[in-house]
Specification:
about 60 residues; single chain; mainly alpha
Length: about 60
C-alpha cells in the first residue's frame, strides 16, 4: 500500500477535489452571468447608438431636400 487513498490510487481524485471543483464551477457560473450582463449592456448601448444614428441621418436627409 502506498498510503494513498483509494480515490487517489484509482486516479479519479478524492472528495476534497470534488469540493474544489464544485467551488470552481460556482465561480465560473457567476463569471458567465456577469459577462452575459455586460454583453447585454453593450448590446443595449449599441442599439441606442444605432437608433440615434438613424435619427440623425433622417434629420440630415430632411434638411438636404
Amino acid at each position: 500500500m502506498t498510503g494513498l487513498s483509494p480515490w487517489r490510487e484509482s486516479g479519479i481524485g478524492g472528495p476534497e477535489d470534488t469540493e474544489q471543483l464544485k467551488a470552481r464551477i460556482t465561480t465560473l457560473e457567476q463569471q458567465v452571468i456577469d459577462l452575459e450582463l455586460k454583453l447585454q449592456e453593450r448590446d443595449d448601448d449599441l442599439a441606442a447608438a444605432r437608433a440615434a444614428n438613424r435619427e440623425l441621418m433622417a434629420q440630415l436627409n430632411r434638411h438636404a431636400d
